[in-house]
Each structure stands twice: as C-alpha cells, then as structure tokens.
Design brief:
The chain is an alpha/beta fold and 409 residues long. It has 14 helices and 16 strands. It has helices spanning 3-16, 63-76, 91-103, 115-129, 143-149, 165-174, 198-207, 230-233, 262-271, 273-276, 283-298, 300-319, 339-353, 382-398; strands spanning 25-28, 35-39, 45-50, 108-112, 134-138, 157-160, 181-186, 210-215, 242-246, 256-260, 332-335, 355-356, 359-360, 371-374, 403-404, 407-408.
Amino acid sequence: MDYREAFQTALDRVRSEGRYRVFADLKRHRGEFPRATWTRDDGTTQDVTVWCSNDYLGQGQNPVVLDAMHEAIEAAGAGSGGTRNISGTTHYHVELERELADLHQKESALLFTSGYVSNEASLSTLYKILPGLLIFSDELNHNSMISGIRAGKREQRIVFRHNDLQHLEELLAAADPAAPKVIAFESVYSMDGDIADMRGTVALAKKYGALTYLDEVHAVGMYGPRGAGVAERDGVMAEIDIIEGTLGKAFGVMGGYIAADAVICDAIRSWADGFIFTTSLPPALAAGAVASIRYLKEHNEVRVAHQARAAALKAKMLRAGLPVMPSVSHIVPLLVGDPVHCKMISDMLLEEHGIYVQPINFPTVPRGTERLRFTPSPAHDDRMMDELVEVLEKLWVHCNIARVGGVAA
C-alpha cells in the first residue's frame, strides 16, 4: 500500500470540499486584548483584531491571573512532575479542585488536562461504574461528549433531537425502567448560541430516575452571579449531578474538570484512564486558574459588560441586514452556508482589513450551515464593531451572498 498517497488523498478530499483549515500565526499583545500580530507565510507581519477567541472575557490577559502564574513558576518551577497518581499532585491542584467545588457548590471536583479529556474520560468511565448504563445524549453535544459516549455499546447510546424534551421523554419512557440512566447535555451550544431547558431536563431526570451530566464549558465564568454557569443562573445547580467545565475559555487558562458529590469524583478518579495515565497540569496553570475563578466570582460587572457587548454586535449586524443566526447567548454566528464562500470572506477580512475570524465548516457544523462565529468580549468597543459591520456589508455584496431580513437566502 502507498501510505503517503492515502494521506494525500485524505487531504485532497478536504481541500476539494472547500474546508481545508489554515491556521493563522498570531501573537497576542499582553494588556491589549483583542489586539494581536499576524505573521504571514512570507514572514511579514500585520496587527489584527481578534473576533473569534474563546477567551471570552480576556482573562488570559488579566494581571491578577498573570501575577499568580509568575509567582507559581518562581515558587514551584515549570512542570508538575508526572501523573497525579505518581508524583504530579501538587498543592496547586488541590487548591484548584477546592475552588471549583466551591464555585459549583458541590462536595468535590476533579481536574483534567482539558475540557475534551474531562468529557471523554468521565462519560466513558460511567459505563464501567454503572453496568448496563443508558446514556441519553443531545444530538448536538460536543465531539468530546460523543467520543466518551461511544465507549458504550450501540444499544447503550440513545440520541434525542436537539433541545427536544418531548422526544427525550419518549425515549426515557421506552427504556428499561430498571437500567441506570444518564442524560448528557450542554448548557450553551457553542455553534448556534442556544441554551438548554435546564429545569425541564432536570424534571425528566427525576421522573425517570436518571442522573444529569451537564457540560457548562461555554458558560462557566459568564453566567450566574458568581460565574458558575447557566445552572447557577437558572437556580438548578444543586439538582445537577455532574457538572463539567473548562478552564480554557472564560477563565483564560487551560484544563478541564468535573464537579459532583465526593463519591462520584472519587470513583471517576479511580477508574478513568484519561485521568490516571496522563501528566497533570503545570502548577502555574493551576495557580492562574485559581486566581481567575476567584476574580470572576467577585466581579459580576465583567459578565454584565460581556452580555451588553454581545447584544450590541447582534443589533448592529441585524440593522445592517446581515444574516445573524438566532442566538440567546454571547455567541454571534453569521450564516454563510457555503464552505468556499466562508473561507473566502474569512481570508479577505484578515488579509485586507486586519480582522481575524475563522471560518466554521463541516464537521464542526452540518454542511450547508457554514458560518463565521463572532465572540465579542468586554474589550471590543463600538468603533471595532462599526468597522467590522461596515466591512462585512461590503464583503457580503462582493462575494455575492444573498441575504433577506437578517437570514441567508
């Protein structure tokens, strides 16, 4: 077999579909978020404004966070020393887990190296702990959740239509009443910007004796009076059995976690391969995360400003007739509907206008729903927004993308 040809064929297929991804070489400016320097292939540079960062609140530039990380490096050095089971548990990790448990008002928390790993490891491990488990999964759950759920047999994986609680109840009612059950869903769905019916899902879980597993990755730090997420905002956090989150988005650092009853966290800690066999986070990252969480617990005004900025951008785009997809969260998706056009607009924004936003194509979103996904932060001011909208209006005409009343035609 010609292995090289097989790899080349795989790449050619992606290119032919217009969804080959090119990463922009960026260097952020400390203290000037969302400004960055883009380095082109020829080595020349250009200053750009970043519009697609998941560092939603700019916490990766917060001096409080940076100071904590510097102090941890000076005190403890660079790496953690190994896996948590051997030599990689430090006081920084213990302190962070306590902070996370407090954030979500749970008995315990368990730290992982990323949000992807925490979902994949935790969900796959539930099958080991609960024989015969059935996991009911929203069809638009993140790939990391799907990957963990695929550890079960086909008959153990039951998918319900997105945010369709009637369909979920039909599936729950048809399932073996004696089988252990978990409902796995997200709070904020990051590509469409919609939010789950938290109370309705909890009610169904109680009715049919299911555990709830909630991914708050795109909500922690940004919703609720202390930033614990949509479950806190909606007053149902105590009724969610397992909350999963990330430190790499609103908290501006890196890592993933679950928060739950102590016995749940301890069991997953003892059984999850994705926890047992991987090197733990460096102390500096843990220290930065602690500082970021503590800061956002006390600074709700950052969340208020963030929501106001997202609402302002949506309003400006809608007034301009741009095809903003419906979103009740901080996510601002702009429908293009074609992978080639999507990348074309993204390239032109960067190369000609110094505006950076990545095209979102299949498999991240379904074919035909390709989009630009904007994530305005408290640091994106009106001047930046007006400039963006003005350029987008011109490009929509230049690229011949039809629009009618705020939706793509």
